[in-house]
Amino acid sequence: MKLITSIIQPHRLGAVREALEAIGITGATISEASGSGRQKGHSEFYRGAEYNITVVPKIRLETLVEDDLVPAALDAIVEAAASGKIGDGKVWVTPVEEIIRVRTGERGSNAL
């Protein structure tokens, strides 16, 4: 099993969720995040003054998948999240040694 973590733009969340559901991945943890990368934020004007916003809002999406679904999941996320512009995000994969469903005590693949 692997944990796929994605940092994406908030307005791309719907497309990413739909792409994952299309390949059979329905479970995910979604949280708001903020950060900066190569885009180094952006400028905004408020009451005639310019402000530099160095931390931009993002979405962190985490999902556990079986090893054989990892390539399809990565392709789905990248294709759905990509706009071709700076700030599209990052995706990384982390190995998972064990998973347990708390309610039933199921372990491994049965807990997904």
UniProtKB/TrEMBL annotation:
Alphabetical UniProt keywords: Nucleotide-binding, Phosphoprotein, Transcription, Transcription regulation
Show the stretches that span the lipid bilayer. Answer: none
| Residues where O-UMP-tyrosine is found | 51
Q: Per UniProt, what is one GO molecular function of this protein?
A: enzyme regulator activity
PROSITE patterns registered for this protein in UniProt = PII_GLNB_CTER (PS00638), PII_GLNB_DOM (PS51343), PII_GLNB_UMP (PS00496)
One Pfam entry name:
P-II
- The protein's superkingdom reads Bacteria
GO BP terms: regulation of nitrogen utilization
Which GO cellular component terms are attached? cytosol
* SUPFAM superfamilies according to UniProt: GlnB-like (SSF54913)
Q: How does it assemble?
A: Homotrimer.
Protein name, please?
Nitrogen regulatory protein P-II
